[in-house]
Fold ATP synthase subunit b.
Amino acid sequence: MALLTPALGLLFWMLVVFLLLVFILRTYAWKPIIGGLKEREHEIQSALDLAERTRSEMAKLQADNEKLLAEANAARDRIIREARDASDRMIAEAKEKATLEGQKVIESARKAIQDEQYAAVSKMKVEVAKLSLEIAEQVLRRELSDKASQEKLIAELASSARLN
């Protein structure tokens, strides 16, 4: 049992060595360790603050990016709408112009056809009149070649003139 119960001298020297160790550690090691821990704590806190600032800046940048994206989308939609409206106007103007041009062409074609009809009718009248005169001349020459047929024709014309 002597091993389990320490002697008084041993306890004294253990206490002296322990206090000496605490004093040495406190004067030479404890301050640098505490300083290193405080410096490390400060560095960690700085890193956390920097991370928080970076996170807030990133959130702000993301909000700005979303705002810019929304503005760009609105501008794109406006430009597309304006282009579509301009295209519709151009198509409508082209259709209207084509319709007017078509009507002008049709009207000029009708006028040309009408002019050609009048010219053809006039020419035909002249030809019919010439032909009628030639036929009448030939008929009259044949029928009026003798005196009796001339008297008969005059009598017929006189009697038809009285009836009308």
The CA atoms of residues 48 and 54 lie 10 Å apart.
